[in-house]
Predict the structure.
Amino acid sequence: MTRSDRRACRTCLAAAILAWCAPAAAADGAPDWALRAWAGPEATLLDRRSPYAGGADLAGLAQEAARAEAVLRLAWRGAVAEGSLRATTERGGRTRLAAVLTELYQELDVTGQHFTVGKRVTSWDVAYGFRPLDVVQQERRLALKPFALEGIPQAAWEWLDARWALTVVWANPVRGRAAQPVHDASGAARLFGHLGPLDLHLVTRGSERTGLQAGAGAALVASDALELHGSSLWQERTEHLPPPARGPGGSPLAAAPPGPPRVDRDQVAAVLGFTFTPGHDLSFLGEAWYDPQGDGAATWRARRRLAEDQRALGQAGLAPPAAVDGNLAWGLMAFDRPSPLRDNLLLHATQTLGRVEPALDLLFAPEDRGWVLTGSAAWQGERLRLEAGARVMGGPPGAAYRLYPGWLTGYAAVQLTL
Amino acid sequence: MSRHLALAGAAASLLAALSLPARAPAAPPPDAHALLLRADAYRLASDAAEVETRVRVFKGGELDKERIYRVHLRPGRRSLVVSRSPVEKGQKVLMLGDDYWIVLPSSQRPVRITPAQKLLGDAAAGDVATLTWAGDYAGEVTGEEVVDGEPCTRLDLAAARRGVTYARITLFLSRTDAHPVAADLFLASERLAKRATFEMGTLAGQPGVVAMRLHDEIQTGRETRIEYLSRRAAELPDEYFNPVFLTRHDPE
């Protein structure tokens, strides 16, 4: 259990005591529970031609051989607890275990007001591949077989009528500025409106790190088969990975990890998309987005030149291998973002064929024509689910995704639900 | 996500079929619309209700899938379908007239879906349940036939609003009391998609449709049986029909 989990536990304990005393709590009933467990192998192939290949081991790329997770969810009288036990086995045989309290919260309905206290998942955006309005949750998307989402400690108040809903959230209360933005204390609000075929979302958030954020999103059912959605977020301050920098005298090697993030002001993130269901159990999703926290093609060209220079130093024996590999591993941090590039296009297609569902998605970066192609297939039984998939990255020489050393990742999983 | 949509959509579609009958009229109907109103009364409640439904899909006579749904019905074409089966546990589909949302436990946000998404996968087997014949179709009496030994009035119905799955229905109602006996469901392409038969019985002390059997005319050997396990008068509070509320609360 992490420090944040212990903090959430303390918060929820008080909330739970209150809830059991509250006359407005839900009616008595048996506790509800659900268990989901999955396990499967995973493998990543390294492209040794990538200039970043030398940093792969230090960055932990291609280390995982198998993963497993068991998620238990309990609910009773408005109290919900969800825990995840995770295991990751590395190629050398070492297994890492982690227990995460993903959710623990209490709902309170008092005199017509709705309150939530505890740790819970809070997603607000209307899009899928990129979600600028997820100002509270801030989870990465497009992951291959991800572990269960971990909620955010919060106190929330909600007001609703038939058409509108206003939610006010105090996220990570009393934490101040944390090491990661997602753990920062912040205040956020979301107004939702249902206006016939249109869903409207207005969102705002404030925190010490980012200042004010404000955004809007909408989902529109345009026809029986077509849904359109879009969202945009203005951010007073945005943290950005620093650009590639050389050491003294233009040396490609640095003696310390990249400096603090660069702060940009008045940035706007936006996504536009559609879902289309033409029949034959086919479904398509398309999205285009601009993420100001990604880099442009010129910055990626500079990153590539720096990585090639670092690798050349190592190959020539002019620098200690540890220094070269360490610098390359720092360089790989540029891939560890929701959008390594600013401009992105996503197309996702699935078809339901009885119990079998194949899916294919293509992420394309127009600036450098790099791409990420993911294919998967799943078989869904009554309690058992089998799935397997693979993701490959490519593009013309110099494209960001072509530079990534873990060019092919495959996985399989068997899942049991009780 | 389409798998979730398919499963939840299936549940949602079935819901209306499980509603309980209001009364069994005796006099012969004066016209098609009046006949349809009487037929709807055997399937759809006019008041708020909570209905437990079991959906079983058979392939080649063997049980392939079984799902349990709790359906909360409110007047004005408002309904909430909550999945109770392990594979879909926690999924909710909200239908407010022609507006639909799905709430998945993994995402905790209401996802706006189109009528076509609601009907993905198995849903097409039961979508007939979400419609009211009198409200969603215009029709005329076109003759009389004996169906399974029951003298019936035949009506030809054409879709009167957007979003209904079947463009045309041939409906057979008992000449005795206008209860539904069978229905042929046609796609916009004029292809016969399914044939529905209705089982009458008593639910909550009232005569009405207690089960519906949908024989797939396209995927041969496939049949869906929708059973209404229980029904009680119950009115879910208004806030449960706001999609945002559903992301944070489950009906008991």
